What does this fold into?
Amino acid sequence: MKKIINHPENAVKEMLEGFAAAYPDSVEYLADHAVIKRKHLRKGKVAIISGGGSGHEPAHAGYVGEGMLDAAVAGEVFTSPAPDQILAAMKAVNTGAGVLLIIKNYSGDVMNFDMAAELAEMDGIPVETVIVNDDVAVEDSLFTTGRRGIAGTVFIHKIAGALAEKGASLSEIKQVCERAIERVRSMGMALSPCVIPTSGKPSFTIGETEMELGMGIHGEPGLEREPLQSAANIAEALAEAVLHEEIFQTGDELAVMINGLGATPMMELYIVNRTVQQLLKDKGFQVIKIFIGEYMTSLEMSGCSLTLFQVDEQLKELLLAPSDAPAFKC
Amino acid sequence: MKKIINHPENAVKEMLEGFAAAYPDSVEYLADHAVIKRKHLRKGKVAIISGGGSGHEPAHAGYVGEGMLDAAVAGEVFTSPAPDQILAAMKAVNTGAGVLLIIKNYSGDVMNFDMAAELAEMDGIPVETVIVNDDVAVEDSLFTTGRRGIAGTVFIHKIAGALAEKGASLSEIKQVCERAIERVRSMGMALSPCVIPTSGKPSFTIGETEMELGMGIHGEPGLEREPLQSAANIAEALAEAVLHEEIFQTGDELAVMINGLGATPMMELYIVNRTVQQLLKDKGFQVIKIFIGEYMTSLEMSGCSLTLFQVDEQLKELLLAPSDAPAFKC
It folds into this structure.
């Protein structure tokens, strides 16, 4: 295991300390609960919280900022945060208008966030939850009932954050997020595994000339293991799988995310984008905005995912609204 | 070689196509010359151009945008662009106030950019050049006389771009950039090599428990090969090496960049930042801004670099001025 870390057991804690030290003007670190929260809260604004296992950096702390999340809760690597951590985050950022929890669809996350929501309600905090399940690769995978939540979650953070900033109510934000979740789909592929610091072992093995389509962001199995294809073939396979969903229709306006899984050079993401854009154009889609980079990673996994988000006028406006979150400046 | 590419010979061309396709509202791709230029030029503004070998993405095209570069010229991977490419970029973005060329200090780049500058002057374009040499690791390395230019170059792009946007003259921008270059120093380290697409072979070999301090961004040899250290020791070694330069004095205001070389998880960069910030605080420096992410990479090399930039009031204002370059939004 070749990593720039100290003791593997301290990696998450030290990562959060290092993150907080990078943005001292905008965030605070609640060390007892592994929570990164906005330093300056706005009274009466609905608070938006997300989080999950660590190892997906810059998710989720990188999305804490004006126009996006109010807090991010970090579990250990690839492990859901515990309910008491999530509850602490809710208490720290609720200013009276309630809290929306944005959850990626993994059984552990759903259970713990739901439990935290119940505890918060007992404390008188209004809470709603939404569950993101954008990954079209597999149903009922390891750790998940239904589709998994992956990079498309970042778009939901943005929609929720922008709407909250405009003063929308908790129920309205939940409703719009659910509409957005219905319209976002992703699929990923991997060339190489990642290594959880405390285990020190690769999450799976894969041959020097193989790739896996539909790989999850924790190294969960995907659709199929096959010989390494060209970038054009990979881009086509991802786009075809995502566009196979019947929500997408010729003429739709789309936002696109080409997401690197951690170790993929930007050069390769640009090359993937080249084919994706050609294909979307050929099929008559209108692309309104393209996001390329590392948004939802899997430690040092090599590979990428494609997310398509079918926007209407309201979703487009919210997606393009200002954000000063470190990993999503716009 | 496990990469998401098509034919290795086409990687740079297709990467630039994919980049241009990602930002159609703000950039244009001059395919004949491998140049990415701003779509909307402002008459009478000094044009700022940089570039160099490819493989350092998001450098240099990612820095094309309002408040930063007017054009980026791409060579093949780790190979300087030719003078005619650089000349074409100058002709494409000069609006009458002249052009500043920002060059990283490698012999090939310096020769080709200088030759292009001479050709442009013969065509009546006012040209100035500055050479960035921020890497304190080695003097007179492979490909370089003097110190190499690495991630600190991005700060110079920002200073030059912000000053040009304010309407400064070519000679004033050159002068301020030279002051900035005097105040920026970097050092990197690597855990693993990268693979140039057309060669298909790792740029060097390194043991499973080794790291190299002072490694260049093309895999050039560094200071020393040693057993893999903890993140804290690595951060200290980089910071000590950079701070050893006599330009840095207790009480100085610094901007900091923790740059990933391509395959390094953000988690590890945050952990490095934790120690760097502790150390700078202990030594009495005032950190005004921290940049963490991939700014000047080396394909899929694993490792990082630390850049410190000692700013005065003018440099601070320019560094923090707005930029809409895709890889440096602020």
Notes: The helical segments of chain B are 11-22, 83-93, 107-122, 153-165, 170-182, 231-243, 266-282, 313-320. The mean pLDDT of chain B is 96. The CA atoms of residues 152 and 171 of chain B lie 21 Å apart. The first strand of chain B starts at residue 27 and ends at 30.
